[in-house]
Amino acid sequence: MNRPALTHIVIRRVVSLLGLVLVIASVAFALLRAG
Amino acid sequence: MSPAVRRAALWVGLYLALAIAPLALALTLGREPDRPFLVELGVAFGFVGLALIGLQFVLTARFPGIASAYGTDTMLQFHRQAGLVAFGFVIGHAGLLLFADPAYLSFFDPRVNLPRAFALSAVLGALVLVVAVPFVRLFLKLPYEWWRLTHGLLALFILLVGTAHVLMVGHYVASPVARVAWPAMSAVAALLFVQVRLVRPWLLRRRPWRVEAVRDEGGGCHTLVLRADGHEGLRFEAGQFAWLTLGESPFSLQQHPFTIASSAETPDRIEMTIKALGDFTGAVGRVEPGTRAWLEGPFGAFTVDPDAEGILLVAGGIGITPMASILRTLRDRGDRRPVRLIHAAPTLEAAVLRAEIEALEPELDLEVTPVLEAPPEGWTGETGRVSRRLLEAALPPDPSARGRWQAFVCGPPPMMDAVERDLLELGLPRRRILSERFNIA
C-alpha cells in the first residue's frame, strides 16, 4: 500500500494544526465575548 | 532548528496571524453588547473563514520569493488543504448561527430581503463548486483552463459577497479600522487575481517566443523548442518550470505549467518535453514551427544546491524532464560532481530522452541505470520498480557522505512515495530530498 508523500503528509499536518489553532482561537474569542 | 524550518515556521506564523487578525480586531475594537456563546463562535468562524479565503489568493499569486523557497507544488498543496479548512469554517459559520438561533434563517428568506437571500445562497453554491469541482473535474471532463478561470472567479465572488455580508450585518465593524480593513483585504485579493490573470500576461507581451521546432521523442512525447524573439530569454535554474501559452495572445486561457528540459546555459532557447495526457498536451505534436509562444516563469525549487557533493536523480516516465535540464546544465558548466540517474519507465519506448541522456555519460561523472517494468526481449538491465537496493547502490556507502548528497525524485506518485520513504530510511536528510509532483487539480 502506498502511503501519501512526505511533503503531502507534512502539509496536511501543518494545515490540520493551523485549523485546530484557529478553532481554539475562535472558541477563545467566543468565550471572551459571550455574555 | 534548521534555518529552513525556522523560515517555514515564520511564514506559517504570519499566515496564522493574518487568519486570526479579524478576531483580534473585533475583540479590541468591538463595543457591541454581549451575545450567546454559540452566536459569537459562529461569528468567529465566519471571520476566520473569510480571512482564509482572502489568504487563498495570496497562496496562488505566484510570488517568486515564496514559490522558489518552497516550490509552487508545495504552495498549491497548501492552497488545496487550506481551501478545505476555509470551507469548513464558512459552513461552520452558517451552521452554528442557524443552530444557535433559527431566526438567522431569515438571511436566506427571499421574502425578507431578496438580494441578500440570493447573494448568500449563491455564495454557498459557489463554495460547494469551488471545493468539489477539483475532485470531480477529470470525471466531468471539464477542461483545465475553464476550471482554472471559473475557480478564480467563483472564489473572487465568494470573497466580495462575504466582505459585503460582513459590512452589511454591521457587527464588529463600527470602528473605522474594521470598516477599512475588510474591504482592503478584498481589494488586495482582487488585485492579486487581476495581477495573475491580466497584469502578468500583459507584461509578457514584450517577451514573445517562437516555436522553432517540434521533435517527436516517441512514447507519446514531443519536445517543443522555443526561441526568444527579440529578447535575451528566460534566466532559470535547472529543474525549474514555466507556464506556457501558445498562440498570438498571452491573455489566452490556455496557460499550462511545464518543466524546462534544456540547459540553463541557453536561456534564449528553451526546450519543453511534453507527454500527451490531455487536450492541450495531446495537441503539442501538431504545433506548427513559427507559432507564437509566451513563457511565464521561472518557478519551482527543484534545483541543485551548489554545496551538494553528489546528485542522485530518480525519474519515472516523463519525470525525466527536470533531470534532463539538470544534466545538460551540469555538462555545459563543466560540473564534474558525481551524478547517478535511475531512470524508470514501463517500457523502453516510454523511457523518453534515454538515448540522449546516456550520450552525456562521457561528458559528466554520470552513471545511468534504466529500470523497465516490461523490458523487451534480450534486456540485460534492471527490471521491475525502483527498489531500495538500487537506491542504496547509487548512493555513497558512507552514511555521512550520503548526508551531503542531494536526491531529486520526479515521477508517478506511487513511485515517488516509495522512493522518498526509502531515501529517508537510507539516511538522507529530509531537506536533501527534493520532489516535484504536478497535481494541480
Provide a short characterization of the protein structure.
The complex is a heterodimer of chains A (35) and B (441). Chain A has 35 residues and is an all-alpha fold.
User: Could you give the order of the helices and strands of chain A?
Assistant: H
Taking pLDDT < 50 over at least 5 consecutive residues as the criterion, the unreliable ranges of chain A are none
β-strand number of chain B: 12
Gap from first CA to last CA of chain A = 52 Å
Strand order of the largest sheet of chain B: 4-3-6-1-2-5
Given the helix and strand composition of chain A, which structural class is it?
Answer: mainly alpha
Number of strands of chain A: 0
Question: Would you tell me the overall average pLDDT of chain B?
Answer: 90
Enumerate how many helices of chain A there are, as a single number. Answer: 1
Write the element-wise H/E pattern of chain B from the N-terminal end onward.
HHHHHHHEEEEEHEEHEHEEHHEHE
Helix content of chain B: 40-55%
Helix run count of chain B: 13
Main pleated-sheet profile of chain B: 6 strands, antiparallel
Biggest β-sheet strands, sense, barrel of chain A: none
Overall average residue pLDDT of chain A: 81
